[in-house]
Amino acid sequence: MFNSTIAPLDIGIVISYFVIVLFIGLWISRKTKTGEELFLGGRSFGWGLVGLSLFASNISSSTIIGLTGAAYTTGIVNSVYEWMSGLPMIIAALIFVPLYLKNQITTIPEFLEKRFDRRSQLFFSFLSIFSTIMIETAGALYAGTLVLQAFFPDLVMWQTAIVLAAIAGIYTAFGGLKAVVYTDAIQAVILIIGCSIMSWIIFGKMDYSWSNVIASVPEGHFSIVRPLDDPGIPWPGLILGVPFLGFWYWSTNQYIVQRILGARSLNDARWGVILAGFLKILPLFIMVFPGAMAISLFPDLPNGDAVFPKMVTELLPTGLVGLVLAGLVSAIMSSVDSALNSSSTLVVIDFIKPNKPNLTEQEIAKYGRITTIVLMVVAALWAPQIQRFTGLWDYLQQMFSIMVPPVAVLFLVGVFYKRGNGDGAFWTLVIGTLGGILAFALNELDVINIHYTIMVGIMVAISTIVFIVVSRMTPPPTNEQLNMLTYNRAHLKEGTVNMPWYANYQYQMVALAALIGVIFIWLW
C-alpha cells in the first residue's frame, strides 16, 4: 500500500518547481511574436541548451516508469534504447544535421517534400502527429498520473491527465520552443539530481557492493544479449530492430529534432547532439539499475510500472520525496511541452500554411497556439486508455515499430540512393505502414509470434525493396531534388577547420562511441 500523504516540505518543493517553470515559460512568451520564434526559438540555441533539451525531452516520465518497470520484470536489456542512443546520434551529427540546417527546414516532413514530393510530406507528417500525440504525449501523461496516484490514490486518471496537460500547454502555447528549451534545461538538471540521489540510496540497501547487486537479481538479469525467446529484446532484435528505432527517433522525429533545427549554428547543433549522447548513458545507472535492484526489495509487485513510485514512497525520506517527485513532474512537463510544440509545428507548417500562403508571421503564431491547445486536449483524453496495455514500455515500443521501418528507409536509403524518387517514397510509406499494422495485428491475434524488434528489421528489408523497385520503374528525380538533399562528404569537415581537437565534434564522437563499446562489452 502506497503512502497517501506527503510532508509539507515535499509539497513545497513541488509547488516551487511549478511556479519557477511557469514563470520562465510565461516570461519568455512576452517576446514570442512570430511563427519562427514560436516553432524554432528564432534559431538561437547554443549547444548546451540543445543537448540538455534533447535529454530532458527524451527522458520523460514514461521513460522513467517504463524503463524501471522493464528492468524489474525482464532485466536491463531494454536499457539499450538509452545508452546506445549515442550511435544513431553520431549518424545524425555526421549526415543529417548539416542537410537539415543547410535547407533551412522547419519540419522534418519538409525535407521529404524537397527530396521527394508533397505526398510523402503529408503522409509522414500525419504519422508524426499521430505518434507524438497518441504515443509520446499520452504516454507521458499516463506515466505522470501513475506517479501522482502513488501519493494520492483517490485521483481520477482522466482528470489528472487533463490538469497535467493544461499546465504544460499554457507556457508551450504562448512561449513556443524557446520556453520549451529553457524549461527543459532546468528540468534536465532536476531530473538527474533527483534520480541520482534515489539510486545511491537504493545502492546503499545493497551495502554499496556490486557483488551484492548481482546476487540479488535472477541469473541473466544484467545481460543485454538474450535468447531468441526472451520477452524483452531477443538477440536478433538487438541487431535488426534497436538500431532502426534509434535512428528514426534521433534523426527523423520532429518531437526530438526540432530543437536541433533551432540551433544557432551547425557546430552548436552537432555539439548539442553529442552532449545528449553522453547524457543518455546516465539512465542506465540512475533508472535501470535501481529498477533491477528493486526485485530484492519489493519481490511481489504485480505490475512492473509500479516499481518506481514504490521506491520513491517507501525508500526516500522527507525532502527527497519532493525532489524526486519534482524530477518526475519535470519529466512530464518536458515531454508534454516538446510534443505539443512539435505537433503544432507540423500541423501549421505542413498542412495550414501551404493552403493559406498569405498568412503573416503573427497569424502563423496564432494558428500554432490554437493547435497546441486542441492537441493538448486530445492527448489528455487518450492517456487513460494506455492502462489497457500490459506494460507502458511495450506499448511505446510496439506503437513505434509500426511506423519506423518505411520512414527509416526513406532517410537512410534516400540520402544515398540518388535514383530514389517521389513514387518510390510514397508507396514505401503506404506499403510499409500497412505492413507494420498487419504484422502488429497478427501478433496480437497470435497468428504469428515474432518479436516486434525482429519485425522492424523484416519490415525495413521489405520497405527497402519496395523503395528501390518502384523508384526504378518510374521517372528519376530532378536535379533540384538531389542538390543539397543527398549525402555530401564535404559536409563532414565543415566548421572544423583550425578548430582545437577537443572542440572538434569528430573527436567527441569517437570518445562517445568508445564509451558505448565499453558498456556493451561489460553488459554482454
Summarize the structure.
By secondary structure, the protein is mainly alpha-helical.
Derived from helix and strand composition plus strand pairing, the structural class reads: mainly alpha
Give the total of domains.
1
CATH architecture grouping: Up-down Bundle
The CATH topology is Sodium/glucose cotransporter
Topology as H/E string? HHHHHHHHHHHHHHHHHHHHHH
Poorly predicted residue ranges: none
Would you tell me the overall average pLDDT? 87
User: Can you tell me the CATH superfamily?
Assistant: Sodium/glucose cotransporter
So how many helices? 22
Tell me the β content. under 5%
Give the fraction of residues assigned to helices: over 70%
Number of strands: 0
CATH class designation: Mainly Alpha
For the record, give the distance between the C-alpha atoms at the N and C termini, rounded to a whole number.
Answer: 37 Å
Radius of gyration: 22 Å
Using the alpha-carbon principal axes, give the shape: globular
Chart the SSEs and their pairings.
Elements: H1 8-29, H2 35-40, H3 47-58, H4 61-74, H5 80-83, H6 86-102, H7 108-115, H8 118-151, H9 157-205, H10 210-216, H11 235-240, H12 242-252, H13 254-261, H14 266-279, H15 282-297, H16 307-315, H17 320-355, H18 361-382, H19 392-412, H20 422-444, H21 452-473, H22 505-522
Helix pairs in contact: 1-9, 1-17, 3-9, 3-13, 3-14, 3-17, 4-8, 4-15, 6-12, 6-14, 6-22, 7-8, 8-9, 8-16, 8-17, 8-18, 8-19, 8-20, 9-15, 9-17, 9-18, 12-19, 13-17, 14-22, 17-18, 19-20, 19-21, 20-21
